[in-house]
Amino acid sequence: MSAQVLTYVFVGLTFALYIAIAIWSRSASTQEFYVAGGHVHPVANGAATAADWMSAASYLSMAGIIAFEGADGARYLMGWTGGYVLLALCLAPYLRKFAKFTVPDFVGDRYYSQTARVVAILGVVFISFTYIAGQMRGVGIVFSRFLEVDIDLGVLIGMGIVFFYAVLGGMKGITYTQVAQYCVLIFAYLVPAIYISLMLTDVPLPMLGFGSTMNDGSGTFLLDKVDGLSQELGLSIFTEGSKSTIDMFFITAALMAGTAGLPHVIVRFFTVPKVRDARISAGYALIFIALLYTTAPAVAAFARLNIVDALDNRAYQDLPAWFSKWEDSGLLAWVDKNDDGLLQYRGGAALDPVKPRYSDTRGDLGERILKNQPTDNQNEVYIDRDIIVLAHPEIAQLPNWVVALVAAGGLAAALSTAAGLLLVISSAISHDLLRNTLARHLTDKQELRWARVSAAVAIIIAGLFGIYPPGFVAEVVAFAFGLAAASFFPIILLGIFSTRMNREAAIAGMLSGLIFTASYIIFFKFIAPEFNTAEYWWLGVSPEGIGTLGMILNFLVSFIVMQMTPPPPQEVQDMVRNIRIPR
Amino acid sequence: MSDQSEQEIVSPSDQPKQLSDDQAAYWRANVTTLLSLLSVWFLVSFGCGILWVDALNQYQFFGWKLGFWFSQQGAIYAFVILIFIYVVRMNALDRRFNVDEDQ
């Protein structure tokens, strides 16, 4: 069977599975809708957390980024896993003992302030929407490339599926679908990686394979071969970074603290029965996540070898079919600078501007003609990073069922994250904004109806973001972490570890962290992008890493304001002491 | 972590003062555990993976440069181990201070 038919089969089967699970696990109360009744098994919660966490970015983009950046990619690998240590040790068990439904619940109750609650609601909604736009776009890309439907139709199908199980099932439906989606996505990620690892090194585990010798009889280590080849072609050296140490440090810290402060991850720990389960559940989640994260750099190293092998000095008309398919999708491009009919893949950007702009005509060999100016270097090939994971099985000439599997895995990753985010948005509206702020008289049944309505509205807005992506989404998603690190993480942490921490300090700290981080980012990204280089950055910290400084500022301001204002009421101090004790 | 001498098992008391002393001791033990685990967390990631990565890259570890291995593999393995040490250690503390949830 062709890869396309198999893709239809796999995607159809997995979607049917998700719908069946949704029907089996409908929610009947707000308790079930928000936190799955609070009795999810810790292993199931770990798998659901992993699927919730690993988005289209982790699944589709990360290995591609590492393939091009090499050692600098470590900031994502460490940043997006190290945050779980902070979460498991410093936040999850205590928030479980607090035993409410949402992050704004905690902020509002701990800081005895409706203002703080509303600020938290705004933060949750903003972070979740910026994130979700990228997921819906990921769904659209997978559909358009593998099922050859329009990107917009792909987004609509994705919306329909999520609508079904998120609106019907709430957290209960989402949790068990996410467990299934985790299994699909990790299987789909590991199978091609194992295949390719065996092809190149004879070692089945990719995380060991990329530290082994090549099986071509040369006895050289795979990474040495990658580095040698890169040097020869003028590509960046894979095992060496180009970012400054201080910038790597600050970006990694911002991603870690941001991970621990993201509401859709925190809320997963409200769904387990006990404090002890919350602790172990974070451990399971990290094992499940680490399986993909330790494989990603191996996939990246393999991809660099395979791409050079498949493209460099090949004649355009001899290229395999995937090249022209991705060229049609606008994610690959070739400009024949020296008119030899062969592709030269070298260091540096091939085109100016970097992203291809196609004209309507085709060249003599059938290649798409570009409007971009060719650059002075010898590189003739543009490769979008996002295609590495999706195209790698085809590049390595793996069987069709593996190619089809990867598409189903990408959809699982994007849909599971989208559903988790939608639930957070819906509970922020129905529970935090309506029940706890504007309309306190709501009965449980009315609140549940509002929860479903807001989930439905949120899906429609998210779908519109996917169909009409605002240009700034890609910029903003990376900074959702910086903002979470500079706002939520410090005030939740201090709220647990300091009984003296009070309302005034929390509001002052959160505002100073947010305003500082947001202005730095807005200045360098939107007002004066021409100054966005290391020599103008404050202390050499890029906008990506500035959340760490915002977080430090938040802590400092909180400490100072705390000393000058009265301590929190006795019952709040008692509550803090109470959540520190499991029983 | 090992500096806590074996205390006799604290029994739950009706006196609030006694209870809060026990709770304070439990909380101190908890914070000590956290700080020691978080120092390891910092050393493997920010230390070996970022600050000393160039120095460690002088050494070869199987097919990897050592610093590169820490930043792309080793730190992640260490994170997983740290969480499980934390779980075992906290469950023991819960029992010792008689605050575990099974009773």
Please tell me about this protein's structure:
The complex is a heterodimer of chains A (583) and B (103). Chain A has 583 residues and is mainly alpha-helical. Chain A folds into two domains: 3-231 and 238-299 and 397-470, Orthogonal Bundle (Hydantoin permease); 307-395, no CATH class. Helices cover 69% and strands 3% of the residues of chain A. In chain A, strands 1-6 form a two-stranded antiparallel ribbon. Chain A has a two-stranded antiparallel sheet with strand order 2-5. In chain A, β3 and β4 form a beta hairpin. The radius of gyration of chain A is 24 Å and the shape is globular. The model of chain A has no long low-confidence stretch (mean pLDDT 90). With 103 residues, chain B is mainly α. Chain B has one domain (18-96). Chain B is 69% helix and 4% strand. Chain B is built from three helices and two strands. Chain B has helices spanning 16-51, 53-56, 66-96; strands at residues 60-61, 64-65. Chain B has a two-stranded antiparallel ribbon with strand order 1-2. The longest helix of chain B is centred in the N-terminal third of the chain and has 36 residues, at 16-51. The radius of gyration of chain B is 19 Å and the shape is elongated. Chain B starts with 15 loop residues before the first helix and ends in a 7-residue tail after the last helix. The chains are: A mainly alpha (583), B mainly alpha (103). At the A-B interface, α5, α10, α11 and α13 of A face α1, β2 and α3 of B.
- Give the overall pLDDT of chain B as a whole number: 85
State the end-to-end distance of chain B: 26 Å
The main sheet of chain A comes to: 2 strands, antiparallel
Give the strand order, joined by hyphens, for the main sheet of chain A: 1-6
Query: Rg of chain B, please?
Result: 19 Å
Strand percentage of chain A lies at under 5%
Give the overall form of chain A.
globular
Number of domains of chain B: 1
